[in-house]
Amino acid sequence: MDTPETPAPPPVPLDVTATDLHGEIRRLRAQGAIVRVALPGDLPAWVVTRHSLLQDLLADERIAKDPRHWSALTERTVPDGWPLIDFVRNPGMTTADGEDHRRLRTLVTQSFTPRRVAAMRPRVEADVHTLLDELDGLGTPRSRPVDLRRHFAYPLAMRSIGGLLGVPAERYDTFRTLSASLVSSTTGPEEVLATRRAMQTLLGELVNAKRERPGEDIISDLIAAGDRLSPAELIGTLVLMLVAGHGTTMNLITNAVRALLTHPDQLAAVRAGSVPWTAVVEETLRWDSPVAHFPLRYATEDIPLAGTVIRRGEAILASYAAAGRDPDQHGPGADEFDANRAPTRHLAFGHGPHYCLGAAMARQEAEVALPALFQRFPGLELAVTPEELVPLPSFISNSVLELPVRLGQGAPAAP
């Protein structure tokens, strides 16, 4: 006689405001290597809490990115105006599989080359020093707090991706606002619709302008690809590059500064030269990944995994934040920020066919920005207690809303 299947436990509600992201992840990991959670709208999904298991899944051909494989979407159980609907349905590399994904990724890779990224370095260095001068003015007198995220991390990241794409500078703030809305877990139906319309309109205008007057930029290159990508894929690709291109780097720089200011022993070691800045960047990526849970992937067949079964059509979150602090991968001190730890692989930029194309660019910007910032302002300190920092209200984007600091005694500006 067959043993009846044990009913799945009810999904664990995921805190969409990420009030205690890493505490929540620890509690989920205690329940198992793979845990069923409830997304906004009570939509079920699976969170993988172990590095090795997530790495395998990210390369598993039975896991798709195309939302047509999501049973909640095909069965129409996704609520109207669901906050992340445009993010998970955005036509482009992140929602394509197989040949479609390879075609789109190849087109972008041809423009987004390592050589092109490396050639950006002098411009990044110039932007960093310009922003430090502006920051110095905002933080005078030295007792005045200044938001480092808003006035340093954000403009540096947006200038870099905006310049690469060919976005006019006067559009940067608008695209930042729209990007934040796309990855927010708490937007209402009206904002979802308004964001969709505004993003489509602005990018459509930008594409039309580039058709008339092409430039030395990625948008012009993608337009020149002609019918190798559809109009919807072109817009979707630009949405992806704008959102990920500035959001990931902005979070990385913000999180790295926060980590160093709350770990003075680590900062002292970096300043003494015993720990390289590249190690700070990699440890930040592991310890406080710029992306917490990346949605969504879908099982294309029933997949037995870690003592349970992911059913065909069910959704999976790639929890880079969970993988980054997995003690099985990073040892018993996985929850500790230690830039001097032995090099270990992390998944902050993903793995497999969807590995982040902008990884080198994000690393380069952080590796230029961080040493310049701390050299210019050796007395840099938080203007609030760490407990007063407010997390971004998103289970996707992982950082804080603001990073108020006092600049302290500054060093002379570079000539």
UniProtKB/TrEMBL annotation:
<dbReference type="InterPro" id="IPR001128">
    <property type="entry name" value="Cyt_P450"/>
</dbReference>
<protein>
    <submittedName>
        <fullName>Cytochrome P450</fullName>
    </submittedName>
</protein>
<keyword id="KW-0349">Heme</keyword>
<dbReference type="Pfam" id="PF00067">
    <property type="entry name" value="p450"/>
</dbReference>
<keyword id="KW-0503">Monooxygenase</keyword>
<keyword id="KW-0560">Oxidoreductase</keyword>
<keyword id="KW-0408">Iron</keyword>
<comment type="similarity">
    <text>Belongs to the cytochrome P450 family.</text>
</comment>
<dbReference type="InterPro" id="IPR017972">
    <property type="entry name" value="Cyt_P450_CS"/>
</dbReference>
<keyword id="KW-0479">Metal-binding</keyword>
<dbReference type="InterPro" id="IPR036396">
    <property type="entry name" value="Cyt_P450_sf"/>
</dbReference>
<dbReference type="InterPro" id="IPR002397">
    <property type="entry name" value="Cyt_P450_B"/>
</dbReference>
